[in-house]
Amino acid sequence: MTSGPALVSILRQGPYLIASVHTALDDSEMVRFQHDLVDQIGEHRSRGVIIDVAALDVLDSFGSRTLRQIAEMARLRGASTVIVGIQPDVALAMVQLGMGTGSVPTALDLEEGLDYLNSRIGHTRSSPSRGPDLAP
Amino acid sequence: MSEDSQGTVGDIPRQRGHDEDQLLPQLVAHLREHRTKLRQEWASRIQDTHLLEAMTPQEMVAETTSVYDNYVEVLETGSVEALQHYARDLSERIIPRGVETHEVVGIVLLLRDVLARSLFEKYQGEFALLDRVLDAYEPAANRIANTVAVSFVDERERVIRQQQDAIRELSTPVLPVRERLLILPIIGVLDSERARQLTEQLLSGIRTHRARVVVIDITGAPDVDAKVANHLVQTVDASRLMGASVIITGLSPKIAQTLVTIGVDLSKMNTIGDLQGGLEEAERLLGYTVTREDGAAIA
User: How large is the ipTM?
Assistant: First the structure.
């Protein structure tokens, strides 16, 4: 596993964890991110995880599979995951290559992701409910 | 022996070439002299063969006269440039009226025959001369027929290209109707190039307008084949990755039957009958309720 400065910042925001990916991750960095995140969910007793990939202009099949796995692991640890900030080009490329996020919900950006988790988990502190969830 | 034959062979073309110099003007003069009669004969042959029925009798007279004059002029000068211009111009006028390639080629060949027949009549007493006249006439006539046909087809292809460009440039607007709600009406034939453009526009539209719901209305798309359907599925998936749900509306009965018969998997698509229903569903998803001023809720 690689060491050194983390390429993903994992911040706590109330009951949620916000993981921002700053740069393209290679496979081992992806695995390190996965470990860090799953560790921290338990540490902070988080109920939701937002993974922000807005800075990525490419997401390969390993990357999207790892994201799906992280979401499943997070679910097992009691947190729901939403992936936010997929760029148009990335979205199109992912679809054309036949890799998606599976059953992991997605949202436009961080704000939308927070809205989604709020409506889903029932914490409505930061904004009023926006109705049922949109992208299952 | 061989020298002799070479000499003879060499002599004939020289003589012929000299003759041809005189033959063509002679021929042209003959055609000019009998212009009215030949043109009328040609026009009646065109009518007999039911060509150019899209044109009125007056137009026929005008067009056949100018075609005739152009024809004779080419025979005289040997230059097809003016004819090329004229043929392109003529094609531009008659293509929109549904004149077909076979008709254009047909009338030019008819004129060629009418003129050849008249030459035949004039020179039928002197076979050697007739032979040389036809030698001079035929290549020129063939070149004319060729030029007219090629000009017509060129013009047709230009029109087709122009129309294709026009179709491609038909804009596919991404329209915000409410906050977070976009509609994308698709009008006209979708080929893969257009479908790709459309997907890109939609995805960037989702980002710009921060859309959560998109209604794609395909009422205006005449046909959807497997390829286009897969594009639609991809567009829906890509939109979902950007956090927007897509509702497809306006699938005609014919398209619905086609898609199911050819087995496109549309199980992930949220489809609703018409645009109105799609907008209502979108509003429901976004938590809007539309109420009338008198208080009655509109379902």
Answer: 0.70
